[in-house]
Amino acid sequence: MIAVLIGMENAFEILGSYAITFAVIGGFTWRVLRQGRRLADQVDDDQKYWT
């Protein structure tokens, strides 16, 4: 019972850390994809070997 109470005392910090981590990873992913699309627009279609 005491272990549950101790865990609940730290729940805000733990869940907050997860939220911040997911937000940062999501923001980084969005930035990388946006930059990749912008750079892909600058390459001629005949040079895009991945298509």
Automatic annotation (TrEMBL):
Q: Which GO terms describe its cellular component?
A: plasma membrane
Q: Does the keyword Protease apply?
A: no
Topology in the lipid bilayer is annotated as:
Single-pass membrane protein
Q: Which domain of life is it from?
A: Bacteria
Location comes to:
Cell inner membrane
Transmembrane ranges?
A: 15-33
Q: Which GO biological process annotations does it have?
A: cytochrome complex assembly; heme transport
What InterPro entries does its record include?
Haem_export_protD_CcmD
Give the UniProt keywords, A-Z: Cell inner membrane, Cell membrane, Cytochrome c-type biogenesis, Membrane, Transmembrane, Transmembrane helix, Transport
Q: Which family does it belong to?
A: Belongs to the CcmD/CycX/HelD family.
Summarize the protein's role.
Required for the export of heme to the periplasm for the biogenesis of c-type cytochromes.
- Tell me the protein's name: Heme exporter protein D
Source organism per entry reads: Ilumatobacter fluminis
From the broadest rank down, the organism's phylogenetic lineage runs: Bacteria, Bacillati, Actinomycetota, Acidimicrobiia, Acidimicrobiales
